[in-house]
Amino acid sequence: MDIMTCCIHGASSSTDTSGAVSVPIYQTATFSHPGVGLSTGYDYTRVQNPTREHLEKTLACLEGGIDALAFASGMAALTALMELFSPGDHLIVSNELYGGSYRLFFNLSTKNGLSIERVDPADLNQLEASFTVSTRAIFIETPSNPTMRVSDIAAISRLARQHNILLIVDNTFLSPYFQKPLALGADIVLHSGTKFLGGHNDALAGFLVVADPSISERLRFIYKTTGACLAPFDSWLLIRGIKTLAVRLDRQQQSAGRIAEWLQNHKKVTSVNYVGLPSHPDFELSQRQSSGYGSMISFELDSETTARQVLERVRLILYAESLGGVETLITYPILQTHADIPDEIRRSLGVTTRLLRLSVGLEHVDDLIADLEGALRD
Fold first, then answer.
1. pLDDT digit string (tens) for 239-280?
2. Is-contact 202 324, C-beta < 8 A?
3. Between 20 and 30 A from 183 (CA), which of 20, 97, 318, 354?
4. Do 126 and 30 belong together in one domain?
5. What is the extent of the structural domain holding 146?
């Protein structure tokens, strides 16, 4: 089944017999049993719910996995994922991480006895040199947040398999429409479903998609035990959002390409990070492992004053902390998404007071460029 068809029809499985075109919202906490020792297949919504099940099967279809688990947020998904590991286990993570992931890894996970090490995933020699007898997993974001560096998923996967190490990929920025990490050798895919999958800035969600039945079984046990499942109504919102994933991302990418080129030629912009620009250092790698470039851009300005001026002057573009929705959002990583990362790490990655991140939405691209042009005017 083509991914565009899968987005619309999903798993094509439902317990409903009414013929409803829209998947029903099973707004119930519990389910009655037909008899002692008998079950309809649903017992308690924390464990499974028909609406959420349809969503999960749709995500598994999109990512090419054998199972998907829907959580109340991306961070809830990542927190549950960390329960796969035990005190003393060593995890290698991207040197560039979303601030929430960094906060979890280097506060809660280390407190719980895990050893977390930051490594540049682009340097395969450095990555392999970091392996120890206790290394259990590699966690990467690609493209990274916010400077849009791309990691070679297939190459890292080959290295991980040689050492019996799990590879976990955060695929939030490209979604399964543009990138399929499991097909490239990853073991687990993480999503903040709040972003492109939901697409409308109206629901929090997170996902884990897996390729191995044994990992699925372990995560399902953690899932029902820790209980951060996605509610039925929010599951329905994600089902609805995914129906337009393909058409949204195609249009957003088209606009992002034009905006990135326009930013490159502006006198107050000193650098532009967009994977779809031939000048991007990972452009060729991205072409090999992805079918698109997405709609996330970060760009550096000539001064902090100019950066703050843009944030205060934009009118159509919204100054807000999120991404992937139909509305174009601009974010100040140093004060928002990456505020909890130590300053010396931010500086080493280029997350400065001059860097802004743009999530391109579905407004007309000429209007977006006009808004940026006005915000950058002397």
1. 999 999 999 999 999 999 999 999 999 999 999 999 999 999
2. no
3. 97
4. yes
5. 3-242
| Active-site residue, selected from the candidate residues 42, 98, 102, 332 | 98
Catalytic residue among 46, 57, 218, 220: 46
- The CATH number that applies at residue 351 is 3.90.1150.10
Question: 57 and 34: one domain?
Answer: yes
Tell me, yes or no, whether 111 and 188 share the same domain: yes
Do residues 352 and 282 both lie within one domain?
yes
Residue 171 phi, psi (nearest 5): -105, 20
Our answer to whether residue 268 is catalytic in this structure is no
Q: How does pLDDT run across 196-209, given as a tens digit for each residue?
A: 999 999 999 999 99
| 28 close to 40: Cβ distance less than 8 angstroms | no
Q: Which of 52, 149, 195, 248 is catalytic?
A: 195
Q: Is 170 part of the annotated catalytic residue set?
A: yes
